[in-house]
Amino acid sequence: MKRILITAFLVLAAALPTFGDCSASDKMALEQFDKAWGDASTSGNRTALEQIYAPDYMNMAAGDTLNRTQSIDASVRNAETARQAPQSVTVVPDYYIINCTPNSAVITHRNVITTMTDGKSHTSYARSVHMLEKRNGKWQVIANAGGALDSRGEVAYSEQEWNDADLRQDSAWFEQHFASNFTAIDSQTGKLSRKAESINETKSRKDTLTSEETTDMNIRMADDDTAVVTGTFRVVGHTADSKPLDRRIAFTDVWVKRDGGWKVLSSQGTEIKN
Predict the structure, then answer these.
(1) For residue 78, which of 40, 109, 111, 122 has the smallest C-alpha distance?
(2) Cα distance between residue 69 and residue 71, in whole Å
(3) What is d(CA 188, CA 169) in angstroms, rounded to the nearest whole number?
(4) Would you give the distance in Å from CA 134 to the centre of its chain?
(5) End-to-end CA distance of the chain
(6) Contacts from 212-216 at CB under 8 Å and sequence distance 24+?
């Protein structure tokens, strides 16, 4: 069964400027800054937003470009509307990619938007891209972009979720995201496994995976509801009997859209011999 960890899979990331290395603490501080910004926007905290937005801030995420004043006014107005007519909507950011220098940063993340309508939950996704500068010793946002994810973006993030679930041996994720008629072909033995068997193999895995990296990932849309993902990945770790594990595998995953979400229909891997 194919197992991968995508370390930098966003097409957008390739177009961003190159930054110096950020420390882990720098990235954590920027992630917390971003989440505090989200809280201030949700609550309509004008005072906080005036500190967060730079004087020359521009918002290019909403179709029409908004300046600092217009953006703050819109956040305050939207928060007041939500208070008067509460809606069951939650927005959770995840999968942060942060690049920074001492005085500039780009933050990219996904937004998982969950809406309750007539007792039913509906999930949609968006991507945000924020540009920041440090001015007078404090981070401020100078530009904001992004928008709803297209199908390729949703599948790319779904691959990332798969990777994380595999590392956690999280059978609940696989129960939800493998199609009922899912099949997998093992990269070493060629054995075909169906959904239940594949999930049991993940749950009972004794190998310890310490490093996984994907390269050359390509997502092709066969139609609106079918995506084919190919690429090469390397898995490093050790086996249950403490032998080194280091493999490179070419993979093909097929995703289908069912019941409003993407499900894995099939996965096939072929080990690349050095």
Answers:
(1) 40
(2) 5
(3) 20
(4) 26
(5) 20
(6) 212/3, 212/4, 212/5, 212/163, 212/167, 212/236, 213/5, 213/7, 214/4, 214/5, 214/6, 214/7, 214/9
Q: What is the pLDDT of residues 161-199, one digit of tens each?
A: 988 888 889 999 999 999 999 999 999 889 999 999 999
Quick one: 40 exposed, middle or buried, by C-beta within 10 A (0-12, 13-18, 19+)? Answer: buried
**174 CB neighbour count, 10 Å cutoff:** 22
> Which residue, 58, 48, 17, 19, is CA-closest to 144?
58
Burial of 96 (0-12, 13-18, 19+ CB in 10 A): middle
Q: Where are the alpha helices (DSSP H) in 107-183?
A: 151-168, 171-177
**How many other C-beta atoms lie within 10 A of the C-beta of residue 117?**
10
How far apart CA 237 and CA 247 sit, in angstroms, is: 9
Neighbours of 172 (CB within 10 A): 10
Main-chain dihedrals φ then ψ at residue 150, nearest 5 degrees: -85, 180
Is 152 within 8 Å of 125 (Cβ atoms)?
A: no
DSSP 21-63: PPPHHHHHHHHHHHHHHHHHHHHT-HHHHHHHEEEEEEE-SSS
- The DSSP 8-state label assigned to residue 104 in this structure reads E
Q: Which residues pair with 228 in a beta bridge?
A: 220, 254
Tell me the per-residue pLDDT of 80-135, one tens digit each, with 9 for 90 and over: 998 887 777 889 999 999 999 999 999 999 999 998 877 788 899 999 999 999 99
Can you tell me the distance from the alpha carbon of 113 to that of 208, in angstroms, rounded to the nearest whole number? 34
* Contact (Cβ atoms closer than 8 angstroms) between residue 104 and residue 26: no
Pick from 174, 182, 151: nearest CA to 265: 182
